[in-house]
Amino acid sequence: MSKMAVWVQTLRPRTLPAAVGPIVLGQVLVAPGHFSWLTAVLCLVCALALQLAVNLANDLFDGLAGVDQHDRLGPTRALQAGLLSAGELQVGLMLMLGIAVATGLWLVIFGHWLLWGLGGLALLGVLGYSGGRRPYANLGLGEVAVWLFFGPVAVLGSLLAQQSPLHGGVILAASLVGLPVAAILVVNNLRDRYTDARAGKLTLAVRLGLQANRWLFSLLTFGPWLVSLPFALAPWAWVAWGCIGLAALGLNVTLWQRDGSALNPVLGQTALYSLVVALWLGLRLG
To answer: To which protein family does this belong (predicted)?
Structure first.
């Protein structure tokens, strides 16, 4: 593989729809008179940089901690496979965090003061998932953190960056959009539960087991679809809502029938599903 191909693989571009959806939803929900294209673009760049930073951090910290071994079932990890050094990953991680901080500072300066807290929380979330002395992934809190950062923090943060007022519908949408994103991590951790357990990484999949996590995936994928039923009023909306339900059903049938490396395609499919849910919520609530 060329060095460029290695970096592209390590950055995991297939996960990016999970970062795009909540930001798009947030911008759609901005109140009239508050929208700025510059702010919207900076929100998106910041979110993408943070997502890429998470991917690099997981490769780096899991590799250093010995979580990734030769029998890994997921996509190749650059550090474990010797494709990139720890130093190279650290440089890439700092670059992504630098982009996130630079864009975030602009948003904080011209947005709401609460963004200081949300921005700091996001940086801690990137580094704390698999890094530090007590990574919160080891505590079984990964799915909760993903829901928080890709739901309320991303959506409400992008609204605050636009100085747009918050209301009940916005908070509901922010709570729902993070659920299918958390489902991506459920798939990832189900696939890796044996190697994670061996390395002492006590994810929710390790703690609860196969069947309970399959039910959790169903809840996270069907949940926002079911809750959005009252919003489906026009005929086209019923058709769209039904199609989303069929997509969720297809994902669940696949997940319940597969295990191990056979779950890899479900990761990208669930990421795309999370983007579709975000667009649907934006159409119905925007």
So the answer is: Belongs to the MenA family. Type 1 subfamily.
For the chain, domain boundaries: 3-285
Of 145, 148, 146, nearest in space to 157 by CA: 148
- CA 191 to each of CA 29, 150, 210, 234, 274: distance values in angstroms, whole numbers, following the listed order: 35, 22, 9, 40, 19
Nearest to 123 by CA among 151, 93, 152, 147: 93
Supply the DSSP string of 5-31, one letter for each residue.
HHHHHHH-GGGHHHHHHHHHHHHHTPP
Give the model confidence (pLDDT) of 25-67 as tens digits: 999 999 999 999 999 999 999 999 999 999 999 889 888 877 7
First-to-last alpha carbon distance for the chain, in angstroms, is 44
75-84, 240-249, 251-260: range with lowest mean pLDDT: 75-84
pTM of the model: 0.91
What's the CATH architecture for 3-285?
Answer: Orthogonal Bundle (1.10)
Do 172 and 197 contact (CB within 8 A), yes or no?
no
Which residue, chain included where needed, has tokens 């571009």?
13
Dihedral sign of CA atoms 133, 207, 141, 210 in order: positive
Per-residue pLDDT, 69 = 67
DSSP 197-240: HHTT---HHHHH-HHHHHHHHHHHHHHHHHHTGGG--SHHHHHH
Q: Is the dihedral of CA 195, 198, 202, 208 positive or negative?
A: positive
pLDDT tens digits, 197-236:
888 888 999 999 999 999 999 999 999 999 987 655 677 7
In single-letter form, the type of residue at position 116 comes to W
How far, in Å, CA of 103 to CA of 45, rounded?
A: 7
Asked whether 116 and 39 are in contact (CB, 8 A), the reply is no
